[in-house]
Amino acid sequence: MSSKTKDKKMTGNSGFDPTRRSFLAAMATAAGVTLAPGVVLYGISRSSSANAAVSSEVRWGMLIDLGRCDNGCDDCVSACAKENGLRGFGRPETDAQWIRKVDIKNPETGYSKSLPVMCQHCENPPCVDVCPTGASFKRADGIVLVNKHTCIGCRYCMMACPYKARSFVHETLEDQKPHAPRGKGTVESCTLCVHRIDSDRQPACVEACSDTGGGAMLFGDLNDPESEISKRVANYASQQIRADLGLNPGVRYRNL
After folding, report:
1. How far apart are CA 36 and CA 174, in angstroms?
2. Which of 61, 151, 197, 246 has the fewest CB atoms within 10 Å distance of its CB?
3. Cβ count near 115 (within 10 Å)
4. Is residue 142 left, alpha or beta, with left meaning phi > 0 and alpha meaning psi from -120 to 50?
5. DSSP assignment of 165-189
6. What are the extents of the domains in the chain?
7. 26 three-state secondary structure
8. In this predicted structure, what is the pLDDT of residue 153?
9. Which ranges of the chain would DSSP assign to H, the alpha helix?
10. Looking at domain 3-254, does it have CATH number 3.30.70.20?
11. What phi, psi does 103 have (nearest 5°)?
């Protein structure tokens, strides 16, 4: 859906009033201070000095080599939870998990593998297309995020995501990480550790995989032909999950 068509739907048949978004944002800002001391929710304007430098000349992505990914290793999952303050509430079916290990099996050969799956940070993200308030958005550098000020918890994005990569916050949250704001009644997913990227650091999962895992995760700029990730994507076969959908994910896999 083009942005022009989407704008018509928002202001036309749907009856959506753009001023309501401003109202919701203002109300969320006023209420946000009660979530956790120091927590500032993602804003669409992104006026900080780091975010002001975001450019479409860069497209952040990840290459995961399953030949180096141990089936029994979940260091990436643990690192993500620690970095972003994700805690279980004893209900695995609803607990937030921004990255998870998924078991797959070839029914013909019996070959099985466990692969990390997270938000794929698509070039054409369906979650953004279906969001009625614009809370789901894609930065110029390809990172897909959720603006908690304007998320109304409708969960349309969760239904639209073919990777089942989004979670809904059912619980009241405490002791949040200031760099990873969350809120009850909102949707969330992997941010590629955007706070780290904007500080010239690697995502927590990539760092953990390099330090204690098999070094299966490589992060970098897919638009830079001189970057290591671009060279490997160009020289070695890699796959996208559900490439048939034409979403062009920023996360690629080798030996899938």
Report:
1. 7
2. 246
3. 18
4. left
5. --EE--S---S--TTS---TT-EE-
6. 3-254
7. helix
8. 97
9. 3-11, 18-32, 49-52, 75-84, 126-130, 156-160, 194-197, 204-211, 228-235
10. yes
11. -90, 130
Query: 109 burial class (0-12, 13-18, 19+ CB within 10 angstroms)?
Result: exposed
DSSP-assigned letter for residue 6: H
Q: Which amino acid is at 26?
A: A
Task: Kindly give the parts of the chain with pLDDT less than 50.
Answer: 1-51
With tokens 């978004």, the residue in question is 21
Structure tokens at 56: 């479409």
CA-nearest of 254, 80, 60 to 180 is 80
Tokens 């919701």 -> residue: 24
pLDDT of residue 22: 45
Integer CA distances (angstroms), 110 to 94, 101, 106, 227, 242, in order: 30, 18, 5, 36, 21
Q: Which residue has the tokens 């390099």?
A: 210
Distances (CA, A) of 200 to 50, 63, 114, 219: 10, 18, 29, 12
242: its two tokens? 């559900």
Residue 214 CA to its chain's centroid (Å): 23
One-letter amino acid at 15 equals G
pLDDT tens across 1-56, in order?
444 444 443 333 434 344 444 444 444 443 333 344 444 444 433 334 444 578 99
